[in-house]
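Before going further, learn to read the protein records used in this course. The integers have meaning only within a learned vocabulary of local backbone shapes. To see the layout at work, look at the sequence and tokens printed below.
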Amino acid sequence: MDTRFLDSFVTVVEEGSIAAAARRLHLTPAALAQRIQALEAEMGAKLLLRSGRAVAPSAAGLAILERARALLREVRDLRDLATGGGLAGELRLGAIATGLTGLLPPLLARMAERYPALEAHISPGISAELYRRVLVGELDAALIVQPDFTPPKSCAWHLLREEKLILLAPAALAGEEPHALLSTRPFIRYDRAQWGGRLADRYLREARLRPRERYELDALDAIAVMVDRGLGVALVPDWAPPWPEGLRLARLPLPRPCPPRRLGVLWLRNGARARLVQAFLSLEG
């Protein structure tokens, strides 16, 4: 089997159309269609269903999709080994939202320059879900908030950044005392389902503060916009820029000590791409 044909099938499924997949693979739509037809003939089954310009996998296509992806990853790993130690293949990375915008782009830019044969596939998500996907092997590594429990010994952790907890308030309230604001102003809560949000909840409980909660959100940039609009104050980590532009905010230090939100990369020590993950992390700074 020509793995290029299998790669073509997977790409069409991911893009949802022959035309978009052809652009991604630098082929003509006719050439890509011929590859799919040859693969279907070899498999003895229709793999794609067409509805106008849209394309979706058939039942047979869905049945082989994940195995096809796994096989293509194995082929890339074999190619990496055949280069005699050169870094090549695909690195499947997960990242939380602030990691995607603040920490990951510089690393990816350095990776593209130093290891041009190493590709990265990025999956966004929340820390808990990305953590699970690393453990079951769906991701090679994930940029997440450090959990408040000890991961299994099969996992490795590399700290990238510590972010102190701050009170976010409209700029006009910059001179106010943080606890007074938390006691009197509407409160926009950082979602307690997020590992970072648990830090804010812990601070409130230890300080015996019961703010007047108005909203609970999992998107830090959305919280910042709402604070700027005067809808309340918030306890958030002082996350890596960029922040939303044009906001007038006060970032007030808290009077009580609080553990920081720690961001880093989690991966399996003995994973098939552990060497690629370590090379990726060597690009830090």
